[in-house]
């Protein structure tokens, strides 16, 4: 099975601006930096990588899970640090609902980020990292032309389970990883942001090699090209999104 997201690679047009945002404002640890790349480690087992490219940017959507009991404290710290929270049309910034609460904000590249917490997540089972107390990366958004086709691929290839299924939206879930499958014609809440497909590479952690072997067979059966990379990661592209399946922790 898929157990979690382990890496996300995005583009930036300014490594310096991105470092100022993620390191200084969000307190993310910098694991590596070079002339054209910076890698942040918001948790010990996830890397958020930015590559500096001379290309237009298309914003991605990422949600970080924080402890429910610490949510107000996390939001207060964000306000104190001057991070502008995105507003709903009625002017509120925080959304509280039956199972959780969240706030949205944007980084220096226009990516739509989210801090989210859920009553049903057992906080004791997780280590929180950094000043924003992040437990794990919960969501990565995948705007697609055909929501139904993409979710069926994720179910068939990865055995992901689905919730909130509609023509325009679906969560595909594997472990803590929630792939937010959104129609390119549905705008991102809360700021009605056009859902352009971002240029990104997503790496999932797989539970074991037998699972990765089954994914490989299904890719073959569907005629989807794949390769094995250094460290045993299975690499392929789905709906224009480069993906990797990794066995064993990259950072352990
Ligand atoms: Fe979200």
UniProtKB/TrEMBL annotation:
Keywords: Dioxygenase, Oxidoreductase
Superkingdom assignment: Bacteria
Keyword Oxidoreductase: yes
GO MF terms held by the record: dioxygenase activity
Family annotation (InterPro entries): Glyas_Bleomycin-R_OHBP_Dase, Glyas_Fos-R_dOase_dom, VOC_core
Gene3D superfamilies: 2,3-Dihydroxybiphenyl 1,2-Dioxygenase, domain 1 (3.10.180.10)
Pfam family, one: Glyoxalase
Domain VOC positions: 4-118
UniProt protein name: Glyoxalase/bleomycin resistance/dioxygenase family protein
